[in-house]
Amino acid sequence: MFEITEKLEHRDSNHTIDIVAQYTIHIVDDCEEDSYIARRLLSKSKHVSKIIHHSSATQFFDYMEKTGRYNDDHIQHNSVLILDMHMPDMNGLEALKIVRSHPLTEDIPTVMLSGDSCGHTALAAYNSKADAILQKPLDMRQFNTIMDNL
Question: What's the whole-model pTM score?
Fold first, then answer.
C-alpha cells in the first residue's frame, strides 16, 4: 500500500503531476447497510487507500489497542476517522471526546456522519472538535471536498 500524507506537486518543464494524499479510512457505524454503502462509495475516492469498518466505537477502540495503534504515531498521519453520530453503545460525540483526549489520536482528522438535518447536531459536532460533517446519504463530491481540505 502506497501512502502519502500530504498533497505534493511536482513540476518539470512540460508536466505538472499532482500526488494526492491517500488515507486509511476508519468507518465507525453500527448500521451495516449504511456502512456497506459508505465503503462502496468511498472505495472510489482518490483519497482512499484502505477502508476498515468498525460496527461500534468500542470495537474501534479495541482494534486500536489490539493492533498497537495507540503505541504508534503513524495512525495520526495516514488515517481519517468517520464516526456515526448515533450508535447504541456510545454515540459519535462520546467517541470523539475519547479520541481527542488521547495524545496519539487527538490529531486524527475526524468526520462526523449524520442523518440529522438539524443545525444543533452540526454545532455539537464542531464544538466537540470534529473536523467536518457528512450528511447521510453520502455524497462523493462532498466527501472529496472535505478530504481536499483536511
Answer: 0.79
